Amino acid sequence: MKTIDKKGSIQKYEEFISFIESLKNLDERKWASPIAENKWSVKNIIGHIMVWDKYMLEEAILKIKTNQHVTIENLNIDDFNKKAVEYVKTKNKEDILNQTIHYRKEIIENLTLLPEKKFFSNYTDNSGNNFAIYNYLEEFIEHDEHHKRQIEQFLNSIN
């Protein structure tokens, strides 16, 4: 079983910010083009990540920080992602990237200040499931990497 290091996990999670910042120079055509047939655009992928970060910050991390009940729940992931894509339709590239960086930094700041006991504790969410920050962080690091690879492959294929 792999040992999870709070500081190392947070640093790995934070590394995604530099990737987001690198997209600020991406031209609008590449930003808005689907990465493959029947796939999202870079805009939709980053917006999807931003909306998930906002949700996790507000419904889990800040709740744990302030000793409140974790209010995440079993969501229909497809519906949640569709709403994220709808949301980003109303935003420009700069807004989406800035919001993504903002929420990611908020999460990092709050996790850094969180005592190890809270970071490694198990909580019960609104659906009655276990939730642990360290598990969430590990899953979302993999999720970020998956989308980063998709975007990089797309950008390399059109350059």
Automatic annotation (TrEMBL):
Q: Which Gene3D superfamilies match?
A: dinb family like domain
Q: Which domain of life is it from?
A: Bacteria
Q: Which residues form the DinB-like domain?
A: 21-151
Q: Which Pfam families match?
A: DinB_2
Q: Which InterPro entries match?
A: DinB-like, DinB/YfiT-like
Its recorded name reads DinB family protein
Taxonomy of the source species? Bacteria, Bacillati, Bacillota, Bacilli, Bacillales
